[in-house]
Write a structure and sequence with these properties.
By secondary structure, the protein is of the alpha+beta class. It has 2 domains: about 120 residues, no CATH class; about 100 residues, no CATH class. It is about 25% helix and about 25% strand. It is built from 7 helices and 11 strands. Strands 5, 6, 7, 8, 9, 10 and 11 form a 7-stranded mixed beta sheet that branches. A two-stranded antiparallel ribbon has the order 1-2. The longest helix has 14 residues. The two termini are about 35 Å apart.
Amino acid sequence: MSPEIEKELFERWPGFFIHKDDPMKSLMRFGFACEDGWRHIIFRLRSELEVLTANSIPGELRVYSSSSTDEIESAIESARQLSRRTCELCGQPGTLFVSAGWWATRCASCTVEAHAKDPSDTTEGLQVAVFWLFRSRLVLDGTDLDKAEPWGEYLNAPSHEDVWARHQRERLVPLNVEYDYPPRGRVVFDSVRQRFYLYGDKCILDIPELVGEIVRRLNLPPSTQVGPDDHYRCPRCLPRTESVA
């Protein structure tokens, strides 16, 4: 979302965003991670709820509130459904689609730009990889098996930290977002069992279409094992711990 609209939200409801710079109490440190076309949905919902943050994962509005009742959950669900029919860029009626790793809700006129070809959309051989779901985009960095790093009996891609740092240097991801903040995962190859394993954050594994996109782009075989891993839990999936005085 543009800084001007975020500023308007913060100034209009300052009391609801007093913790926006505290990552332990709010995810607003990273702002509203959606485009301006959904601003009217957020403004309307903001009038009803004590919203802590809102973003698009994947291609639809996700809202996180400081409290929960049937009425609040109903309002949030209505906003989510409306976002799936509203272009995130311009606010006109749109549809949800996936293209070149991007999940987005776009109208007909905005779809042409969203369909721009991603050079990493396809690969020729089997690969291992690290990946993230960041602002509705599947950020995937694959490594051919013959160039993979041996970690014991497994063939691996470089670390998330190293790959994310490279993406930051190349200005592909923001400098103020740490590598372990977005939902992430990894694909490895067991050289003993001759099998691929796809491990990921629950936020990713709960979306079958997204898992299918990873499998397709890496040319993974049907025998690939898919499952969670405790290493890959984003802040939303980690249990909130209470500080003891």
